[in-house]
Amino acid sequence: MSQKKYYIETYGCQMNVYDSELVGGLLNDCGYSITNDISLADAIFLNTCAIREKAEETVNNKLDSLQSLKNNKPGLLLGVLGCMAQNLKDDILQTKPYVDVVLGPDSYRKIPEIINSRNNSMDHYVDTRLSKFEVYDDMFPSRREGINAWISIMRGCDKFCTFCIVPFTRGRERSRSIESIENEVKKAVQQGFVEITLLGQNVNSYRTSGGDFASLLEQVAQIKGVKRIRYTSPHPQDINKELIEIMSKYENICNHIHLPLQSGSDRILKRMNRTYTKQEFLELVSMIKNIIPGCVLSTDIIVGFPGETESEFEETLEVVQKSSFNSAFMFKYSPRPGTKASEYTDQIDEEYKQSRLESLINLQRDITLLENQKNIGRTIDVLIEKDSKRSSLKWSGRTEGNMWVIFDKDPSYSIKDIVKVKINSAHGVTMFGDIVHSLEREKNEAA
């Protein structure tokens, strides 16, 4: 009898990627092996996102396309997991009765039970209850070979930004123990991962009896074999001087902070319930750059939030200009049912949202190029991650600041090595350079 196979398709954020790896670990324990061919799968799970409407449309279309596969293979187990399952379970059950399993993000431990019950002809299983305690502390994800390991350190969110559905789909904040996180980091290193990214909806809200986020970051930095540490996403309100000083203390903590701005207008920030002002944000940027000179900042920005005037949008552009973000995730506001902002009556017309988004993208593109051009002539540490798509003779790697660099291959090095690259040029979001050691060796050989 051949081994049963599973297929997982993941939508949305890095937390969903991590959760899919947790589910993969559970399925491995149940005797399943992963397949990349969906037609060969005995179990298919879609791990979903409810943050933006586009993600819901994509998942619904995917489920529609799987109906014929399900009809032709009645024994196939088809499940919907994650935030969309939590938020839209009634709609899924009503319009897609061929879906066997609907599990919210706190119910993945049920999967072995579901697999066993399935063998006894159980029909449907639904569990979208949120937990005050579930952090999957004792479970290890099934990761594919790679450079970076995502590690969830906490779940849920207590901020209740008026545009965000996460507190309703993932519940309230709760943190894993430092010991369990350290154990997972050590296991990831043993599996060959050299970069660790700590994950949380508000990662720096992490709190345990063993210490806060700054304490956790320091302890992870001391684990042997961890070449680079990143984290995402912090909330500006919870970033303090202690955290920034610990970042500056350890070389393997990347000098890069993803710092979500969302808006540059105090009135809009208050409407969003972001709990900081424009001035406080700019002061935070200044503190970070004073303590960690050269620290790279990236951000999230929403344009066209309900009631946003043209002058308030201009304030956002002003803060973007002053902050010199190296990169940004930029979105048009999209109302999510169940959030406070979706009830505002002064929604912005789509044409204005699109126009503002294009203006912001153009500004950020110019800033990104300028920031990258500042590195021309400098020598920067780059982690070799993969072959370049441009040429099999070149490598592609990332700087501490999460920016991509393309450079010629050198047989002295291999993927997962950190090399010193002199930057020669910058085009768009990418920089180009040469490994410094190679140049030095060529000079010595010529002499």
Could you outline the blueprint of secondary structure elements for this entry?
Elements: E1 5-10, H1 14-29, E2 33-34, E3 43-48, H2 53-72, E4 77-82, H3 83-87, H4 89-95, E5 101-103, H5 111-118, E6 125-127, E7 148-152, E8 154-155, H6 166-170, E9 174-175, H7 178-190, E10 195-199, E11 207-208, E12 211-212, H8 213-221, E13 228-232, H9 241-249, E14 256-258, H10 266-272, H11 278-291, E15 296-303, H12 310-323, E16 327-332, H13 350-373, E17 379-387, E18 394-399, E19 404-408, E20 418-427, E21 430-435, H14 436-446
Parallel strand pairs: 1-2, 1-3, 3-4, 4-5, 5-6, 7-10, 10-13, 14-15, 15-16, 19-21
Antiparallel strand pairs: 8-9, 11-12, 17-18, 17-20, 18-19, 20-21
Helix pairs in contact: 8-9, 12-13
List keywords for this structure.
447 residues, alpha/beta, 6-stranded parallel beta sheet, 14 helices, 36% helix, 23% strand, globular
